[in-house]
Amino acid sequence: MDEVVAPPIVERVGDVVVEAVPCRRCGKSLLGLRLSDVCPGCKAPVSETTGELSIDEACCVQCGYALRGLREDGVCPECGTPIERSLRGNLLRYCSLAYVQSLRRGAWMVLASIVVQFVLVLCSVLLVGLVSFAGAAWSSGIELATDLIGVITGFMSLYGWWLLSELNPAYSGRDEGTVSRRVLRWAVALGAGYAVAEFVYQAVFVYQAVPGLQFNPALGWLAVVMGLASLALTAVQFFASMLYLRWLAPRLPNAKVYGRAKQFMWLGPLLVTVGAVCLGLGLLVALVMYWNMIYWMYKDLVAIEGRIAMDGMA
Questions:
Q1: Cα separations in angstroms, 192 against 113, 152, 154, 264, 272
Q2: Per-residue pLDDT for 288 more than 80?
């Protein structure tokens, strides 16, 4: 993992950049631009790509208090955090410890769910053989247990993304990733509700968990609707999560996470669909690449959390 370093102190007159400092995202020169402008290359706010903020647009990184009108060498009147720390930009290195801990826990939950999914995919062939030899008396129970594990794994992933997409109340940039973050959280909430509904449907009508209750063939359309809803929710959550990671990665900063999230926008669906016909190898490759991306972010978050904790002890 690359060492997380403090952003440079940019030479400026008022809010105008007076040195040829490059944009942290695309490398374009920001000379002559104001902190309220956007980078000519990637359109990111200059206040973020230079790593610092003006006092009029900054909020305290600890409590979110608006710092407009206060002295740069002072402290936050709400929590006592030095204002200078809040002017260093929106790198996670300068966010509150509680916020970074939440992101780190979310990344860990997503990683754990990916490991379980990977094992389930590897064991799928074995389970098919086991069901065929177990007979009707055991096959329904085995399949129901497998689905239950899948539901638990899904909830682990959903909860992880819920923590990862938590709003930082002290974030003061204009490019807040608001749309992708909100869409992701809505998809996570709806996905959790769908997971429960699907498991109940499978248990009651498919595996006959309720004796004597027969499935009405007229409800066959319900299975089709649920399948389409699952596909739509999965797609929305996937693309929203990749867009959100592209916004979050520069705040680590980690170019590998940004590049993988951008690549995965097209490669992920290709591996899962086209690659699925190759004995499921496409899905396995996608899970490995997905796990690597989240793990890179997790390592950075662990390191950032440690540095923030050390600063608090100093």
A1: 14, 10, 8, 23, 22
A2: yes
Q: Is the N-terminal amide bond of 82 cis, ω within 30° of 0?
A: no
Sign of the alpha-carbon torsion through 183, 186, 187, 188: positive
Angle (CA) 213-217-221 rounded to 5° is 115
88 CB-near residues (< 8 Å, 6+ apart): 6, 7, 51, 52, 53, 94
Q: What is the mean pLDDT of residues 153-175?
A: 77
Q: Report the sign of the C-alpha dihedral through residues 299, 282, 206, 194, in that order.
A: positive
Terminal C-alpha separation, the chain: 24
Residue 160 near residue 110 (C-beta atoms within 8 A): yes
Distance CA 262, CA 39 (A): 19
Dist. CA 87–CA 58, nearest whole Å: 6
How far is Cα 85 from Cα 81, in angstroms, rounded to an integer? 8
State how far Cα 243 lies from the chain centre. 9
What's the CA gap between 5 and 130, in Å, rounded?
Answer: 53
Q: What gap in Å lies between CA 126 and CA 110, rounded to an integer?
A: 25
Residue 195 burial (C-beta neighbours within 10 Å; 0-12, 13-18, 19+)? buried
Dihedral, CA atoms, 256, 239, 178, 252, nearest 10 degrees?
-10
Residue ranges of domains in the chain: 99-313
pTM over 0.90: no
Whose tokens are 């449907």? That residue is 201
Q: Of 251, 244, 236, 245, which is closest to residue 293 (Cα–Cα)?
A: 245
pLDDT recorded at residue 42: 66
Paired tokens of 212: 């004597």
In the DSSP assignment, the letter for residue 11 is -
